[in-house]
Amino acid sequence: MLKILKIFIIFFTLSALIISVLFFSLLWKYSPELPSYSKILQYKPELSSRLYSSDGVLLKSYHREERIFIPIERIPKRLINAFLSSEDKNFYNHFGIDFIAIFRATISNILSVFNNQKLIGASTITQQVVKNLLLSNEVSFDRKIKEILLSIRVENILTKNQILELYLNDIYLGFKSYGIAAASLNYFNKSINE
């Protein structure tokens, strides 16, 4: 039993060392190429201008991207919970990266390749905010590493609610709708509280 315990400790120590060396070498390589995250700190979205009649009927909306910013305090908890449930169940429990989701997606995607099934992602809400506001939609290993490194940085400078607020106001939800408020109006002609 003692021999097995020693082997386990040696294996764990070597694995931790290899992972640390890999992480710091990636950090060394990609840090100079990372964009500044000041755009997230100074987030000022292009909002829609809306023209209403005297009886409250929307006459015209002027925008490049349909967007209405809603502070996190005004977003209903049920709506927040719906997004957390579908996008990032462990949002309040990780530091920008969900290693369990990455491992699960890796195994699932390996199996999916052999079965001609659709691949799944493992991005957290923080990673999606970083990708949407700081990086491109390019599918590459380099972009994913930058996304991970920036996500860790963003988690250290913003609160979880600030990150969630950025996500819910910036995510593209189809039909020219960016953010939950614009999507609610475009799809249902109702405010998010309704």
Q: Would you identify the regions where 5 or more consecutive residues have pLDDT less than 50? A: none
User: What sort of overall outline do the alpha carbons produce when their principal axes are compared?
Assistant: elongated
Rg from C-alpha positions? 21 Å
Q: Describe the sheet with the most strands.
A: 2 strands, antiparallel
The percent range for helix content is 55-70%
Give an overview of the whole structure.
- With 194 residues, the chain is mostly helical.
- The protein has 8 helices and 4 strands, in the order ααβββαααααβα.
- It has helices at residues 2-30, 38-41, 77-87, 99-115, 125-134, 141-157, 160-170, 180-188, and strands spanning 49-52, 58-62, 66-67, 177-178.
- A two-stranded antiparallel sheet has the order 1-2. Strands 3-4 form a two-stranded parallel sheet.
- A hairpin with a 5-residue loop joins strand 1 and strand 2 (58-62).
- The chain is elongated.
- The model has no long low-confidence stretch (mean pLDDT 84).
Q: What are the key terms here?
A:
two-stranded antiparallel ribbon; two-stranded parallel sheet; mainly alpha; 194 residues; single chain
Helix and strand arrangement:
Layout: H1 2-30, H2 38-41, E1 49-52, E2 58-62, E3 66-67, H3 77-87, H4 99-115, H5 125-134, H6 141-157, H7 160-170, E4 177-178, H8 180-188
In short:
Helices cover 56% and strands 7% of the residues. It has helices at residues 2-30, 38-41, 77-87, 99-115, 125-134, 141-157, 160-170, 180-188, and strands spanning 49-52, 58-62, 66-67, 177-178.
